[in-house]
Amino acid sequence: MKRICHVKKLIGSAAFLGLTMMLFPQMSFGQGQGFVSREYRPRWFQEYENYGSYDLRKSPTYFDETYVTGRRADGSSMTQTRQVMSRVSYDPFGNFLLPGGTIYNMQWDQSRLGTSSAFDGTYAPNVFNNLMISSDEFSNWQTRFMIGTTIRAYFTPSTLKMTNFNGIRWDASTRKNSITLLAQPSSGVAAITTLGAHWQSILGDKLKVGGTFISRQRGTLAYNNADIDNGNAGMRDTPRYIYLVLSDGSPQDLDNGPRIYKIQTIINGADLTSQVPMRVFKIKDLLNSKRYYSGAFQQQYVFPRSGDFIPYRPEDQAMNSDSWFLGAMNSNTNAYSNLFSKTTDTNFYGILNLQDFSNPTDPSGRYFAADMSQGYQEATGDDVVIYEFMIPQEARDVKFKVLAANDYCIDLVAAMYRFTQVGEAKWEDQPLSPAYASKWSVLYDGRNVAKAKGNVKDYSNQEWITVAYNRWTGWNQYGLDAQFNWRGLKINGEINEYNALFSYPVNEHLSGGAHYKETARAWFVNLEQDLGSWGFGGELFNYPRNFQRYQTSIDDNDDNNNTVGGTEYPGLDTDWDMSVDTVFNDNTKPFLTYYYDNVVYGDDFNHNGTIDQRENDSASDLPYERDSKGNHLFVKVKPYGSLVTFGRYDIQNTYRDGRNLTNYAKLEKFMNYSNFIEYGWQNRVERVLRDDFKSNRWGVSGTYTIPADYWKNTSFFTTHVYKNDWNLINTFLFTYSKGYNPTIAPFTLMDHQQVLNPVKPSRVSWSLGSTHKTDWTYKIADARLIPDIYIGGYRIIKEKRIKELKFQPMLKLTNSFATAYSLREDLFYTRQSYNLYPIIRVDYRVAPNTLFRCGFQGLPGFPELNRVVRENQYDDYSILNEYNNQRLVVAFENRTLYQGFNLLVMMGVRKNKQTWLDSRGRKEPGQTEYFIQVQSEGVK
């Protein structure tokens, strides 16, 4: 149903808000961010960063992270290990080292499972070799010039944010104006040249305005097709075969699929439908289609299989490609050959071209030939319909007019002959025959060209659409941005036009390829007004599907470290308490685990169970997702020293028919009493009216639901009691949700069909996590250990004094309770886990800059305990993960000041011994590790 916007009401509301801002007094309001926009997280500390090369404070530290990839038939987990990074680090004793990391590390590990050694000096040259090419100033001008491979560059949230820009950068500025020029000249095949310019001016100390231009081209000119040469095996001619592929934009739906009724072929502007040969094929259940050898069925498939291979909601796995078909094809090196190959040379027989052996008298008959008697072709689920066109060599502009309906997704795949090919087979020559021997050496190029809006199933959107085959050759982007700050009113806005450039591909020796331009405009406006005891704000945005769809100059760098990508552990300061909040799994914890808490609180606007500030993905860090538009309004009040926020946001997919509509209220309060007790309380209540927004970000979206209707409450409470050298800390995180509509759970497979499993309505689920810890520190400084001892007036023992000794016992307990729904058991169950950590630390100062340090986590007779309890079934599986642990670390630590940074050199030994509660014959992990580490410690 369309929503009607009344212009008069909008103008009246804007006038009222403007009058309110002028009349109410201006007072400080606080720093709660409260925006959906990713740009308003506390990770982008510098708006306009002018320094390049390596930043010691952001040196990355790598960890091996183990994550679960699935379950075996016996219920055990299948795991995989990958390297992830953090821009913060801990010493082996659990002390947090402010933003920094390992510069040099050498270790020898002698464990029960084998012996290994490792050396890591990767970052030492970078840390100690930070070169600025030139910088100077004259009059009121400043200038800086850099050439390098790791230059940091940031223009605006939607134009350019690059961590390791490789090229030339020149900055110039006065008191009111600044300009940055970037150039990345490239050479060789598929060269991409980048040019960028950003100007910013301050007007009256209240308003900043800026302009941006970014250009990235393949080669040195727009519409350049030099990349198609691909070295010595480049394109020999224009494309000979082009395949138009119809698939379902929502393949999990098993009702009416998309249809194509007619196709017209337009070559060089003329309708040549009757002259261009066309064949039509239909492959049912593509993701389970078998491969063929000499016409015989074999137990191999087009796609790699593990049991019954059906992607979980394949249209959502498509991410930014917008096509699950291309996503599946690109994930398998041989998929294109499995489908389209016309030769037996490489032993990949194209199933599309197999003869119909039940009709050997028809030389043009094909096993997958489509039935044309109905007057249309339809693709349901993971079926695909493929139209094959033989394109004339003189083509310089190829378009197709398609009469389509329902939730169509249309891709074009071209087969372009390489120079290595001797000749070409004729159209009438049979594929998979000697006529094609050594004559099918091709480059496959696939691109999504059309996608229906929404998920239409009633044919109401039947229309003619025009699609063209071409290749991306570059893009230009133009942008304007402004920031306004006056008497507590902050407005930040940006508008950008993204022009993607395309050309019909021709060999570098040919010319005349048709040119195309695809334009997309994205914009956002954020506003917040501080009125002292209360305030309000909001954001409006629209980031269409095609904005920066093909390539972007914005990194995926959620943790803002020196390396693009990677998982964001632990993130930054979620609760704004001037210390970094940490989240680790068992493989990324510091050796002694007292000084971090995995119970954290924050906004979760997309309801996926992960705080937005802690999310990670493989998409560029745009302030808003592509294919999204919406609004977010909120009001903040400060009663009795608290901060209360009331808000509503409505975020919609522009193409994929999803929506996130939520009302929420949030309470935040922190207090201190008599300088011995502190407490904090944060509570968020949400009324989720609809929650089926389809995210383009990999690793972000949670359980997909039908339009939802549920309540959710999240409560966070912490207390800190302290007196002299004693601390007692308790932290609780409680979540509760109650749903009123069935929720779609993951699919099960029945006869190769995806079947939905609705969870029972009116369900209730909850979880409780808590951390309790206490520590006491006993310090001895300049105390006499042994006095002078004299006999007969002669001193036989000289006095021994303790320079500095610190003894610190610690005890930490973590608990986790949760309910969840099990498809296998068709019931809700409760899982409980707890960990108990007894710790003793001793530090002794040997010299002014050197400490002898010793730490135990788990003591004889009192080990570290790790327990899991699960009600209902699979208790036997839970006990396999329960263990006791003992850790020991002994080291000498020297602290040295180097160019304003503390460098910590630590040499010592770590020992770990783990004992399974129920070993079942498994080896018990444990190792003895000797190490030398050099780490950096930044400053706040």
Question: How would you describe this protein?
Answer:
Helices cover 5% and strands 49% of the residues. The strands form 8 sheets. It has a 27-stranded antiparallel sheet that branches. A 5-stranded antiparallel sheet has the order 16-20-13-22-23. The chain is globular, with a radius of gyration of 32 Å. Among the domains are: 61-107 and 115-127, no CATH class; 134-208, no CATH class; 233-469, no CATH class. The N terminus is likely disordered. With 940 residues, the protein is mostly beta strands.
Radius of gyration: 32 Å
The CA-CA distance between the termini, in Å, is: 53 Å
- Percent in strands: over 45%
Q: Percent of residues in helical segments?
A: under 10%
| Number of distinct helices | 6
- Main sheet: strands, sense, barrel: 27 strands, antiparallel
Characterize the overall form. Answer: globular
Calculate the mean pLDDT score and round it.
Answer: 75
Report the structural category. mainly beta
Give the low-confidence spans.
Answer: 1-32, 40-63, 67-71, 82-88, 111-131, 293-301, 304-320, 569-588, 698-706, 744-757
Per DSSP E runs of 2 or more residues, the count of β-strands stands at 47
